[in-house]
Amino acid sequence: MDTNKQTWKEKLANKIPAELGREVDIFEQQMQLRKQGKIDEKVFAETRLRRGIYGQRYDNGQRHDGKRIQKLKLSADVVKGPDTLWDAPGMMRIKIPFGGVTPEQLETLADLSEEYADGVTHVTTRQDFQFHFVHIADTPDLMRRLAAVGITTQEACGNVVRNVTACPLAGICHEETFDTTPYAKACAKFLMGHPDTQDFGRKVKIAFSGCAQNPCGLVTMHDMGAIAKSRVVDGKVQRGFAFYVGGGLGSVPYKAKLFDEFLPEEELLPTMQAISRVFARLGEKRNRARARIKFLIAHLGVENFRKLVLAERQKLSHDSRWTDFLTSVNEQREQPLKPGMSLNGHQRPEGFEAWHATNVYRQRQPGYVAATVTLPLGDASADQLRALADIARRFVKDTLRTTVEQNILFRWVSEADLPEFYQAIKAIGLGAADAATIVDVTACPGTDTCKLGIASSRGLARELRYQLGEKSLQLDEAVKNLRIKVSGCFNSCGQHHIADIGFYGINRNVKGFQVPHFQVILGGKFHDNAGEYGVAIGAVPSKRVPEAVLTITEYYVRLHFKDERFQDFVARVGKKAIKDLLEDLTKIPAHEVDRSYYSDWGDPREFTLADMGVGECAGEVVSQAEFTLAASERELFEAQLLLDAGHAQPAVKAAYASMVRAAQGLVKDQYPAISENDDQIIAEFTKRFYDTQLFWDKYAGGKFAEYLFKARQFVGAGKTADTDRAVQLLQEAQLFIDAAHDCHNKTRGGAPGAVAIVPPAQPGA
User: Fold this and answer.
1) Which of 272, 496, 707, 711 is the most buried (most CB within 10 A)?
2) Strand 501-510 vs strand 484-487: parallel, antiparallel, or unpaired?
3) Domains in the chain, start-ordered, CATH in brackets?
């Protein structure tokens, strides 16, 4: 056969692993059956999700350059079927276990992003890659071409074990106990497609870290997490892990609980299998809002959960895969391209010193460094990916890794090559400094492409990068190492809970107009494997968030003690002081004065245009719901102050009261005569808003209302709250109040019970 006339399928036929090729064939058959109506859409939805295919938002004013618009116009001519997914482009997630990627894979990703997507490859906060604006009809071909270079999308999404993440410095870090790479790789291979991981109610996320103190693995925010440890037994060094279970962010974050202080390495995989079996059997299935491992452990208690897992472990039949990989864990897996040589005496190009200070890590192997290529917002064009592949072949072979901060790490760079390496990445527009600093803002897709996005996380992150980058020469050293993370909604895909300063998108009603806002989250701790979660201190209009960041950081610079970490500073000065500091930023000009505040970052359209009359007699018409919702926000903040002072039980009661107050505000719009009795308020709320599903979220269902019901049971039963439970309940209260605002925005207009609130005269008026 003339090789020049071979199709790409023929050229790749012998390169596609049999098991991956078979998976793609099966999915292609399922697509055909769905188009014929022989597979229910609900079943097919989970089928495609398990192969990394999501629907996405695209009618949002975001990311629409000429090529994307052309693809959207062509979308209706693709595959006709009963589902909109066939007609509209979607998103495809691509698994990259522990972030390991090769130059050949980068080139393939570049080609596919141009041919099947929008020319952009996105690195996620879980070391995956994502394509956007992909047509589902193209996905089997896309999967086959990925499989030919050893990449799969299998179980990148869905109710399964997601991508297994690990520290990108594993194997080269000075502080690690040992290299966790082979363990992460074995775990990803063993659990993918395993019969015991196919019947979960929700997803499972796993992470590995080589040490306890650094943030690279972020173990405590995962369903299962392993931190490398060693001990000496009978004169021999034994490897194992401090093993954690039940962590997770989402709308209400839970810190993982210690399952075993030292889990021997040979017990790692069988223990994970046993946990999977217990979770599949006992985990929630019907209520997706409660279907993560963290909720099962909260219900059973970690001790009872451990007993169940250990009993399950004893039932397992031996599997050679549990330990086969251990024979090679000490082998050197990565080889440098060049000898390690010192940088001394080499000429340094302009900009090199600043880049070197933030983007270069000196490996434990003499003469070698790891260099971070910063990808703003996690994005790289096709041309940039191809160039990075060329640069890799020139300097480091196959030793690349993606990071949870949405960058790419080049490992085993000879130090003497750094000036030349820097010039090469600078030439393709990726020579930015400030990796892992306050400028290196992490963000989820938000309203650009996510159906759940409320506010533009990427738009805000882009603006923060610009403003902080422009001011980088003036930033105090104490501020430079802070982390900012942004999510477009409460679900924490941007990991806002573990940032020094985090944000998640919400909407608020301002004088009859819906306005994009972000909740400000303070007190998160990125280090110590995500050691602490932050809490909300108040909402700021989206367009004023950059001012809020500068206000907070300047306050910290002015008042912090020497070497005082930001989390300790926040705890010392108190959240009330910082909330008061931001009070003026919560105000925006009237719509007729400046409309820019009523649109989101990167989208010139108005966020929402609501029809509302103008108040009379120098007063403004404010509904009872708005008035009472404002009171509920104040009561919740008082609950937070109680918790900060160490009074967990009073804080829980105050948070519950704030939820009842918010429910009362909604009820008053329909029933102005509602009493102050909690039981009557909740009964009326249930009848008017929960049973009618007025309060229900399009995607979360009745989850937020159930937070109120659960808090009522907890408080009513007189249960004692520890700090962890109090933190969770306060976070649930915040989400309930946010949902009450959203419900009021949906149902407002013409409601009885509106009252005229006349503001007090201002001095000099």
Assistant:
1) 496
2) parallel
3) 3-147 (no CATH), 172-328 (3.30.413.10), 352-427 (3.30.70.3340), 442-610 (3.30.413.10), 619-765 (1.20.120.330)
